[in-house]
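Morning. Coffee machine broken again, so started the prediction first thing and wrote up yesterday's gels while waiting. Chain of 159 residues, entered below exactly as on the submission form.
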Amino acid sequence: MQEVYEKPLTESEAMSLAVRDIMSYPVVTAKEKTSIRDIAKLMKKHDVDAVVILDKAGSPAGIITEGDIVRRLVSAKRNLWFIKADHVMSKPLLTIGRDSTLEGAAKYMAEKKVKKLCVVDDGNRLAGMITTEDITKNAGYLINVLEEVIHTGYYMSVL
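Came back before lunch.
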């Protein structure tokens, strides 16, 4: 089950960077029955701190972060050999459409108190991932847009 964030764009939002412009892809994925030990190995191999868990149909079903592993397993001294991804993953999976704006993504993350969102295409298939770090890296662009609007009252897209 997924919760997808989508809303109509205002005129100013239509001129903004979209999630698709800065999302990371491809996303590291694993199946629901993958062991947490193997998930941790995937994280190390690909130098990521999150793995998206796919259901039997190949659709995104949840996410496991390094924090999930530490909070739910290591701190509870549970055996990583036998625990499967579907017992640890965070769900419902929060997703955002790839055409959503960075502002919309930032607001949604703040509202839901998450640091990562899976990005989905029009067919609700996994297209990428966006993080608060991705948005922060692009904050300079957003500040320049705001300064232009404040000083001139007009924004001209150069994209």
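Residues 9-14 have pLDDT under 50 and may be disordered. Going to sketch it on the whiteboard this afternoon.
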